[in-house]
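YM 10:42: CmcJ/NvfI family oxidoreductase sequence, as discussed on the call
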Amino acid sequence: MTLRGVDNIDELLQQRFALINLWRAITPVYESLLAVCHALSIAPKDFVASDLVCRDYVSGSYLITYNPTHQWFYLPQMQPSKALLFKCFDSKEDGRARFAAHTGFDDPTSPPDAPTRESIELRALVFYPT
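YM 10:58: structure's back
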């Protein structure tokens, strides 16, 4: 397997790595706000394996089922001057948070004529030194 400019991806994936997301509004967000679930409030039984189907490849991902113990957080009326950085996945299995569920949701307090959300998301694959 190769990753643009990385010849030893299989070797790198044998050590600790993480997926980090940076999410930022392009215009103020009043509709389809971004929510992130506190990773430690998600029980292992809440995860459901799923395929992430893209134009050029198929990858694995997880969905989560409803659980009243989930703790969700969001930034209302997020402005372009703010950004949210969160870890989506960590390969380390030592009890630390490994997954962070996130989703867009409709805030019932948003104005009915709120503009459509415009945002950008950057996902980085981070490799930790051994």
